[in-house]
Amino acid sequence: MTDLADIKATARKAAFARRAAAHAARPPGEAGLLSSVLAGYRGVPLSAYMAIRSEIDPLPAMQEAAAHGPVCVPVIEAAGLPLKFSRWTPGSALREGPFGAMIPAVDDFIEPEILIVPLVAFDRQGGRLGYGGGFYDRTLELLRGRRPTLAIGFAYAAQEDAGLPLEPTDQPLDMVVTETEVIEFAPRT
């Protein structure tokens, strides 16, 4: 019998291939819908990410949001810990962080209320398959324990997968924004 870790690894491999193909064929303006969604949350502290490899790039939406309120990016401090979030502004000095993601050169930690979450795959129930480190699951659980925290997955439509292998510790998304649509999920109880 195959264990869940093997099943997730197989699902990730297939999802990475779909994401790479979507990234290679990406249309201009892929962050347009994300910008539209974020316009409804002007001024709310927001975390996004600096895209690596074939991730869909939220940078245009981040630049627009930064004109209206604080924007930060995730900082990985160590395996097994939740993420911290350092303030980012357009044109700010950056340095390479773990896994090659760029982070602010000078840490100025803030706590976001909205997280734009990178992912490998998503489903239409708010499920998310990440990279396997559990960073966003730990972080969302911590932040949601303090206050309402909105988790918005940002992905190519091709990253959708109806059969995600999920665990009880996987934190659900509230919404997924792709280059073609906005998918909202009913609140979980």
Report on this model:
With 189 residues, the protein is of the alpha/beta class. The chain has a single domain (4-184), classed as NagB/RpiA/CoA transferase-like (Rossmann fold, 3-Layer(aba) Sandwich). It has helices at 4-24, 32-38, 59-66, 135-146, and strands spanning 46-47, 71-75, 84-88, 94-96, 102-104, 114-117, 121-122, 128-129, 150-154, 175-177, 182-184. It has a 7-stranded mixed beta sheet with strand order 3-2-1-6-9-10-11, with helices on both faces. Strands 4-5 form a two-stranded antiparallel sheet. The relative contact order is 0.19. The model has no long low-confidence stretch (mean pLDDT 92).
Which helices and strands occur, and which strands form pairs?
Elements: H1 4-24, H2 32-38, E1 46-47, H3 59-66, E2 71-75, E3 84-88, E4 94-96, E5 102-104, E6 114-117, E7 121-122, E8 128-129, H4 135-146, E9 150-154, E10 175-177, E11 182-184
Parallel strand pairs: 1-2, 1-6, 6-9, 9-10
Antiparallel strand pairs: 2-3, 4-5, 7-8, 10-11
Helix pairs in contact: 2-3
Number of strands: 11
Largest sheet: 7 strands, mixed
CATH class: Alpha Beta
Helix fraction by DSSP (H/I, runs of at least 4): 25-40%
Radius of gyration, in angstroms, nearest whole number: 16 Å
In which order are the strands of the major sheet placed?
3-2-1-6-9-10-11
Residue windows where pLDDT falls under 50 for at least 5 positions: none
Query: What is the count of helical runs?
Result: 4
Identify the CATH architecture: 3-Layer(aba) Sandwich
Q: What is the fold named in CATH at topology level? A: Rossmann fold
Regarding quaternary structure, what we see is single chain
Overall number of domains: 1
**Class derived from helix and strand content:** alpha/beta
Mean pLDDT: 92
Distance between the termini: 32 Å
SSE series:
HHEHEEEEEEEHEEE
Question: Please, what is the CATH homologous superfamily?
Answer: NagB/RpiA/CoA transferase-like
Query: Which overall shape is indicated by the principal axes computed on the Cα atoms?
Result: globular
Strand content: 15-25%
EC number: 6.3.3.2
Protein name: 5-formyltetrahydrofolate cyclo-ligase
InterPro entries: FTHF_cligase, FTHF_cligase-like_sf, NagB/RpiA_transferase-like
Family: Belongs to the 5-formyltetrahydrofolate cyclo-ligase family.
